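Throughout our pipeline, every protein is held as a single compact record rather than as scattered files. Nothing more is needed to write down the fold, since each code stands for a local backbone conformation. The record that follows is passed on verbatim for readers who wish to inspect the format.
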Amino acid sequence: MKNLVLLQAATTGGSGTYSTLIMLVLIFVVFYFFMIRPQMKKQKEIKKFRDSIAVGDKVITAGGIYGKVKEVKENTIVLEICDGVKITVDKGSVYASAADTASTPDEKK
């Protein structure tokens, strides 16, 4: 009886290692295709949008400020948020175009 138990333990020990390794690889593959890859794709789209911002575009900042681009610099954007009121914001804080949203504050009035 002792020999049978030892033989079973030795046999399952080797295959258990391979199945654990396969499961870890499968988990990584699932994470890559369902979480990492879509996030990288979205980051590329955001970067492309930020690089394509031009004077006259209507944008929304991360803080929810709607404005019209008056000047584009290397790392910053000058926005006109009201007649004669201009603010400088970091390019990284611009996430959406006001034209892409369903309704802007001006349309609600």
